[in-house]
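Dear colleagues,

As part of the handover before I leave the project, I'm documenting each prediction I ran so the next person doesn't have to rerun anything. This entry is a single chain, and its sequence is reproduced below.
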Amino acid sequence: MRFSAVLLIACACSLYAAKPMEIYSIDVEGGQSTLVVSPSGQSLLIDTGYAGNSGRDADRIAEAAKRAGVKRIDVLLITHHHADHVGGVANLLQRLPVSLFLDHGPSVELNEQYDERYSAAFSKGEHRAIAPGDKIPIKGIDATVVIAGRKHIDGKGEPNPYCTGLSPVSGEEGENPQSAGVVIEYGKFRFADLGDIIWNEELDLLCPENHVGKVEVYMTDHHATHVPPKAIYGLAPRVILMDNGPRKGGDPQAWNVYANSPGLEQMWQVHFSMAGGKEHNVPDPFIANLNEGQHTGEYLRVSANADGSFTVYNSRNKYTKSYPAK
C-alpha cells in the first residue's frame, strides 16, 4: 500500500508539472487586461479594462476565465489608477469573485485617494499595496514585482549595452510613471508585463544595468503609445505582445523600435493599428482583431512550459505558432 501511495503521488506530481502556464491577452479596446493561469489552477489578473459599455470588458475577462477553467480571481493586480486599467473592477466583481487586490497605493492624480468605486470593490476582499521585490502569492509560478510607485527592484543586474546615449526626459507626471510591473516565471519561461511605465522608469529599471533580465515574452509598455528607449532590447524577448486598440497604441515609431528588437522571432497584436497602415502592423495571422468597430473581442493566448518552450494562439483564426525551448 505504501508503494502504491508513493507511486500515485509521483504520477500526480508528474501530471502537475506537465501542465502549461497560460497567459491571455484580453481585448479591452486599448486598455489592458491580462489573465495568467498557473498550472496549479490559481489565477492572477493584471488590470480590468474600462467600465461601461454594458460590462463589455468584464464579459471578455469572464469568458477568458471560463475557457481557462477559472471560477475566481485569486489575485487582481491593478498596475495604476487610469480608467483603461482599473475602470472595469466593479463590473468584474459582478461576474467573478476576487480574493486579493494589489496596487501601488493611492492614485497621485486624485489627491492621494483611491477612486470611490475601486475602494468599494476592494473592501469586498483583502487589499494591500505592493513594493518592488514583493512576491505575488500564486501557487506554481514565481511572480515578482519589479517596479511600482517609481521605485524598482534592488540588487546588481546585468550591464545593458543598449543604454548608451540614453538620458532621462522631463515632464513625466501622474499615474503612468507610478505603474506596477511584474516578471512571471514558470521554470525557464519568463514573462514581463510592466504596465504603463514610460521612458524614465524604463531607464531606471534597465539602465545602466538590466534589473529584469531576459524574457521569452514581453508585453509592450503603455500599449505602444509612446516610443520606448532601446534599453528594452536588453530584455531580448523572443515574442512581443502588443495590447493596443484600433486607434490607441501601435504608434508607428514605437512599432519600429519593438519590431527591430534583436533576436525577436515574432510580434503579435491584439488589434490592427489604424495609425500604422500595412507598413507598421504585423501580418494578419498574428493580429487578433482586424476590423475597427466590430468589437469581436478576440484574444491572444500564450501556453508556456517549464522547459522554456511556448505556443501563441490567435482566437480569431485559430492560428498557432510554437517556439521551442532554447
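The longest helix spans residues 2-18. Confidence is low (pLDDT under 50) at residues 1-16.

All the best with the project,
I.
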